[in-house]
Amino acid sequence: MTPLHEIIAARIREGGPMPVAEYMALCLSHPEHGYYITRDPLGKAGDFTTAPEISQMFGEMIGLWLAQAWMDRGSPKPFVLAELGPGRGTLMADILRASARVEGFVEAAEIWLVETSPALRRKQWESLGAHQPHWADDIDGLPDGPLFLIANEFFDALPVRQFTVQNGALCERMVGLVHDRLAFGLSPPLGDADDLPGGTEEDAVYETCPQGRSIAATIGARLASAGGVALVVDYGHAAVRASGDTLQAMQGHAYADPLDAPGEADLTAHVDFIALSKAAEGAGATGWGVRGQGALLDWLGIRVRAAMLAKKQPERAEEIEAALDRLTNPEAMGTLFKALALSGDDIPPPGFAEELGA
Ligand code: SAH
Fold first, then answer.
1. 136 vs 86: CA distance, rounded Å
2. Alpha-helical regions (H) of 87-235
3. Best substitution site from 27, 36, 88 to test ligand 1's pocket, by max atoms within 8 Å of Cβ?
4. Which residues is 165 bridged to in the sheet?
5. 114 Cβ closer than 6 Å to some ligand 1 atom
6. 35: Cβ below 6 Å to ligand 1?
């Protein structure tokens, strides 16, 4: 049993079952034993990989997206170039390298990394130290000024609440103890609450991510008052109301039971892009809809970049082609992963003015 298992079990013995969201928050962010607090989870030796770790092309395309959006807004100087949950700093490093050709962009960028994990802050320092980045614990720690923000696989790590309807009554999914083992259960029927998703289908699971919506609203308010754009890339859904239990655990690149090893496995849930967009729009920003990752990368020219890289390094041609396929193919990350663009004005962000397909 993990040390965090002991802590969670003791809390349940004392205070009763806890909502799934509280369990998820403890697993990921407990100040001593939280999954992200204690380790670098990325890469071959870790538990999962992400688009920027698959290929430099991902960050390069995002860098061009940001630089174009910046020029479209009159190249404001200085501006805040922010990333939420930067992992190893790979995405930001690729962004800065690709956008270095755009005159004035890197020089005008004040780099801000929103990161809670001391282990990952160290990694970020190693990859980005030369650019003198600043760190913030949360989005409220970002300074004022035009904001150009990116978040890749950040929102899927925020705790979700899960609700279900039983005999016509709405209940919250909880984590409790059965014979000293962690087990899912349900709360007593809940009254009406603002936070509830309002689903009525018997036995279906409805998820909400209050922290995600709150962060999206803060981004929206910042964009509306100081200008700029945001790009949120993650895996999830863009249907008006999706249901289902999407909580999942990954350990050693394989799916695991979310209750098996608290603090030792990555826990994520699908991102509800419509909810994020609505929260940002409610705070004054413009939401430009959701595009498949593959379609957006295609539009930004990833195929041309892949051909160029393969020509420069023929010995890596196969690897480059495989990465391109993984990032863009609908059977891989191409459509499950999606991008949501937000802006503080009515200038369409690159790739979001016209239909791109799925
Ligand atoms: N964006 C990176 C890493 C994704 S992993 C990539 O694509 O490779 C999720 C990242 O979000 C990690 O850096 C993790 O430490 C950070 N994170 C998770 N929850 C957070 C929170 N509540 N506040 C700030 N950072 C968080």
1. 12
2. 90-99, 105-108, 118-128, 210-226
3. 36
4. 170, 202
5. yes
6. no
Tokens for 18, please give them: 């806890």
Q: Tokens 């909580």 identify what position?
A: 247
* φ, ψ of residue 330 in degrees (nearest 5): -60, -25
Provide the CATH number for the domain formed by 3-157+209-343 in this structure: 3.40.50.12710
Tell how far the Cα of 85 is from the centroid of ligand 1, in angstroms: 3
The runs of H, that is alpha helices, within the chain are 3-15, 20-29, 35-38, 51-54, 56-72, 90-99, 105-108, 118-128, 210-226, 273-282, 293-299, 302-312, 317-328
CA 270 / ligand 1 centre spacing (Å) = 15
Ligand 1 midpoint to CA 180 (Å)? 31
∠ at Cα 33 (116, 246), nearest 5°?
Answer: 75
Task: Give yes or no for residue 55 CB within 6 A of ligand 1.
Answer: no
- Are 160 and 258 within 8 A, CB to CB? no
Q: Atom of ligand 1 at shortest distance to CA of 90? A: 8
pLDDT, greater one: 199 or 24 = 24
Strand, helix or coil at 193?
coil
Residue found under tokens 């990116």: 150
Pairing status of strand 337-343 against strand 286-292: antiparallel
Rounded (10°) angle between helices 56-72 and 302-312: 130
Cα 4 to Cα 32: distance, rounded to the nearest angstrom: 9
Q: What is the amino acid identity at position 136? A: A
User: In terms of pLDDT, which residue wins out, 1 or 254?
Assistant: 254
Question: Average pLDDT of 80-98?
Answer: 98
Q: How many whole angstroms from 228 Cα to the centroid of ligand 1?
A: 22
Ramachandran sector of residue 167 (left: φ over 0; alpha: ψ -120 to 50; beta: rest): left
- For the entire predicted model, the pTM comes to 0.96
- The CB of 251 under 6 Å from ligand 1? The reply is no
pLDDT of residue 358: 41
Distance from C-alpha of 265 to C-alpha of 195, rounded to nearest angstrom: 28
